[in-house]
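SEQUENCE WITH STRUCTURE:
===
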Amino acid sequence: MSALPLRRPSAAASASSSVSSAPPAVDDALLARLSAQFASTAADHDRSGAFPHANFELLQAHGLIGLVAPAALGGGGATLATARRVIAAVARGEPATALILTMTWLQHHALGRGDSRWPAPLRERVLRDAVAHGALINSLRVEPVLGSPARGGLPATVARREGGQWRISGHKLYTTGIEGLSWLAVWARTDEPAPRTGIVLVPRRAPGVRVIASWDHLGLRASGSHEVVFEDVAVPLDHAVDLRAPAAWAADAGSQTDIDAHAAQQAWMVVLLGSLYDAVAQAARDWLVDFLNQRAPGSLGAPLASLPRVQEHVGEIEALLRTNRVLLDEAARAVDEGHAPAAADSGLAKYTVTNNAIRAVEIALQLSGNHGLARQNPLERHHRDVLCGRIHTPQNDAVLIAAGRRALNTQGAAA
């Protein structure tokens, strides 16, 4: 395969223009080949739960791991629309690979913003490592007692200052991609009299980082979302990249700058994760269409695809997936034009896309019967994978409560 072609403006054009450079041109034929190649081993990864190392080697060979990193640092500087297309193609083949890549790209997008609070040398190191070496990064936030920080509470993971170092101790759950990560962005609190909370950047191979191979999940089994224990892990002081007093976090969250940054980051997360689970549903739809056109019971004397009832239900799948496509494309377009939807609206998009994807696969199972549940066919795997879409933040209850409160407050103000 040829390397992924990246369309870059000339130096003269860049110098004469005040707008951002043109997004990379992603070759559709290459994406189709990657989908097919990843799909050919997806069932093996599902059965074994083995980390898809070969998939990431292939992604790096085509310059895709650094696709979202800023062009100034050698990356692709990709728009959200371009990133969405790549994630959808990868997920159509093997969604656990797409999930790990999504988590890395979300970190790259946050780091690539000009308002990042990380020290510039560390920010650039993480991004350049991705471009040059395919280094992956993810955020480690969930804990056994705390649960998800999105629900509130202080982390039990502690950063203790000792001379010119921080010493990190704690326990994290659901560390997606841990077997292939190079960097861990660890949510922690300090042991100071007035604790600060924030992110400490920990190299994956630092002494004292221990993985508990506990991930044995229904879906996305190759994501390697195991537990990680930090046992007095030493990192330099400047690796505490963003520590703030809890009151400062709350104050910053209310500033317009942080509201806008949060809305953009939320939209990136929703569009990429939505594209992932929508792609799983599309893969299920493709298998179903082939099955219905080929399956011709003797009692019918014609393919199942000829039955009006079957056509009606496949039409319902088409309607669900078209709704997803419109929502995701519109959200990506808005972000790329500098108009990120409000966080509550992104939440509603996530709710709709995820539930549409799940419903589409459920209809496919109903139409295919026992064939859809057989392990030799991919539909049952698609069903297990698509159900994982409900777990990601923001979850259904939080999305609907936020939307309901907004509507009720608006009506109350108007009254």
